[in-house]
Each structure stands twice: as structure tokens, then as C-alpha cells.
Amino acid sequence: MTGQTFIYCVGAAKAGTSWLFDVLFHHAEAHFPAVKEMHYWDVLENGTGGFFREQSLKRLDWLQMRRAQVTDPEVNAYQDRSMADIRGWLDAFDGQTRNDDAYLDFLGRGRGGAKVIGDFTPSYALLEKPSFKAMAGVMERVKFIFLLRDPVARAWSHIRMDNGDKGEAAALAKFDDFLNGGEQNIARRNNYRRTLNKLLDVIPRENLFVEFYERLFTPEAVARLMGFLGLAPVQPDFAKQVNRSAEIALDPARQAAARDLLAPQYNFVSKFMGELPPAWTDRQVVA
Questions:
Q1: How far apart are CA 12 and CA 10, in angstroms?
Q2: Strand order from edge to edge, sheet including 5-9
Q3: Would you put residue 122 in left (φ > 0), alpha (ψ -120 to 50) or beta?
Q4: Hey, where are the domains in the chain?
Q5: pLDDT beyond 50 at 285
Q6: Domain 5-47+96-281 homologous superfamily, CATH
């Protein structure tokens, strides 16, 4: 027994997970490597170890390039730690072999002063129940976090992120493909009902913290989360932006079509949470 709590943030993507990771990364009573997404459980379930290692090496190359361009000592220190942690994780996980001891040790099991350790990988939202059950069994105290964002806004933000610098026309074309049944990764990430139902089939409700993106950046929401995790209160920078997508407006016609398509998610979340934030009932999608 380590006395620690292990947490998973399993999504949703583009719902504030990077900001929340940053808050906990800097919390004095928590420990996380400078690698937000471990991709341990999804790689094991899907057999995508080769892709995982390829992407990790690309990230290393990018960090090395940026390290040569940036002269800020504080930024350089974080870059150096990030590169060291990526190399350490590649040494610990070959992308094929399940080794929970190596996984937990890399994440800080038994680390002095760390009440909370864990793994922030939004793609875990797509996992099947056996993986969720295995995840819940890695330590004595395991808790999960899931962040909900207005489904249309989440999908549009995700599409803009994937679109990169290809411009407005390409982003809108990708959104039209989503509306017409394409972009299955986007659609699956929007299926809050699937994720929460599968997760709650294998863990008790009291071990799951669910919050709306639209009220995450408030002292009240952060206080609730710290209480859930057993951590001392903090006052993070609520204005800090992490991984913000390019700002491109979504026209009212596409907004309406997407709301119709995603109506089952709105209905499910309303029943599950007992409410919807005002932003969810407003057709204006904020970038």
C-alpha cells in the first residue's frame, strides 16, 4: 500500500483536459511526468504500439527543434524534462507488453509527498469495459475524471484542432463530413453516453468526478475536484489557455444540424447530470 490515489482523466478531448493537467502538474501534493498522455491502455487494447512509438519519437524531434529555438531558461527546463520523460516512458513501455508495475513506477508510485499520481489520456474514453476494469484495479484507490463540453462546440473544436493550419474552407468541409456520417473518431469522442455507461458498469459512482467544461474554470469547480482527490485547495490561473484551437466561426445552419445529430447526447447528459449549463442550450458556439 502506498497511501496514494491514482487518477485517470479519460476525456473528453477538447474539454479542458490539458488545462486541468497543468493545474495538477503544478500541485505540490501531486506528481505527474511531463508527458500528459501515456496511451498505455488504448495501445494495449488496440494493438497500436508501432504508431504510439512513432508519434512519441516525432514529439521528441519537435521538442529538440524547439529547444534549439527557445532561450527562456524556464521553458528550456520544461523541454528538457519532457524529453527525458518521453525517453523514460519509451524505455518502460515497448508498446506491446502489459507491465503495470513499470507503468505505475514511471508515474510515481510510492513517491514521497505525492498524494495523487495518474494518467491524463482523453482517448481512453473510447475503451471497452475490460480495459476500464483493468484500469480500476491497478492500485487500491483509483478514481476517474470525465469532462463534458457542449457536444457541438466540442466536435467543432476537435475538427479545428485536426485541421491545423489548412484554413476555414477545409475545416468546414471536415465538419460537413462529420454531419454526413464521416469523421468517426470525432463522432465516437462525442458519445458521452457510451463512455459513462461503460465506465459505471465497472466502477462505483463515487469514484467518478464529472464536470462541465463550461464551469470548470471557476474556483467552485476546482474546489470540488480538490475535495474529490483529497488535495489541498489551489487557486490556478483560470485565464491560462492550453492547446487552444484556431478561432473559426461555425454558421447557424451547421450548428442546428449538429445539434439535431447530437440530440441523444444532450438528452443523456441532461438526465445524467440533472441539468445543462446555459451554454449548452444556446445555439451560439463559442470558439
A1: 6
A2: 116-120, 5-9, 142-148, 208-212
A3: alpha
A4: 5-47+96-281
A5: no
A6: P-loop containing nucleotide triphosphate hydrolases (3.40.50.300)
